[in-house]
Amino acid sequence: MNTKWPIFLHTISCGILVFLFNACCIFLTQQEPISTGVIDADNSCIQYTGRFDFTNPKCVAFDWAGVYIKARFKGTRCSIRLNDQKNEYAVIVDNDAPRLLTTDTTKVYEVAHGLSDSIPHSIMIQKRTDPFVGKGMFMGFILDRGKNLLPPDMRPLRRIEFIGNSITSGYGVEGASSDCTFSPETENACMSYASMTARALNAEYHIISYSGRGVVRNYGDSNKTSIDPMPALYDRTCFFDSTKKWNFKAWIPQAVVVNLGTNDFSTLPHPDKVTFQDAYTQLLERIRYLYSGVTIFCVCGPMIEEPCVTYVKEIVEQQKKVRGRYNDVFFIEIRRSVLTNSDWGCEIHPNIYGASKMADIITAAMKLRMNW
After folding, report:
1. Of 78, 218, 239, 333, which one's alpha carbon is 20 to 30 angstroms from that of 25?
2. Domains in the chain, please, with CATH?
3. Contact 120, 149 (CB under 8 A)
4. Is 166 one of the catalytic residues?
């Protein structure tokens, strides 16, 4: 079965180029023996970044937006073994422009061929779509006969965790205008402000975000509070399985960016000020408990302004007073006016241009406070 890579080209003022061009997916009907280059998902040379469920090490499960898998290899071709019928992925080979992979009933996707056999190659696969689009299961690679993976590159020393909602997931970021509605094709966590910020800072990153979630109230809830806002999901390895808890000792960031509050106040009824601020403060305290010495950046905007901006700013100011010279939390406001009419994607979410402007602001603040 063949599927095509759609061609897209986005040129951004900051110099970011994203090319999505044609390639073919080859469906292999038989499981081939190891001697032909089949690499299982538990190979020690594979780097996983983000939250993955290794309950079955041969079939690694995941669903958070922005998780990514990296490897190095020698040979002329590379295929991905992936069980997923819903999600969209960015595939980068040898640091070339990302290719869009749209999954279907195929279980093996050839993503590179005709490569030089005399030099090492690299591959990165990153999930573009939100948890609600669906989960994926990665089973490994298929290389040329007799080829194996090479030792991985050293991981970046800097690590950032992003906690957020649709903006952080890249909801609608590929949209042609604010009039379009959501589709998996227009969501791209790889081009959200979070991914752009991390790349600008040469940092490894985790994205823990889910569209529509708030601090205490989710988008469109008829009540002032919801039973499962974003903090209630924070401990999960994967959203789709509430029983498996993430091991916070497995990956410890130096900085955490929290961008929540948009959905709490985007529709009525708004949560009470005290309820919102107490829950937000509890989240900050939990982050500190989990990550000793972490620096926290509280972002508000650009899709929401008052009263969210004032409420979050007051929390940060109060925290500064309490912690004194040990201040470890900073406020970043991104006003709606920073984005122009051409900076909005589907359903009035920041597009790639808007996300780039957000990333510039957050990157500058993190460079200053983290001395990066």
Report:
1. 239
2. 8-150 (2.60.120.260), 158-370 (3.40.50.1110)
3. no
4. yes
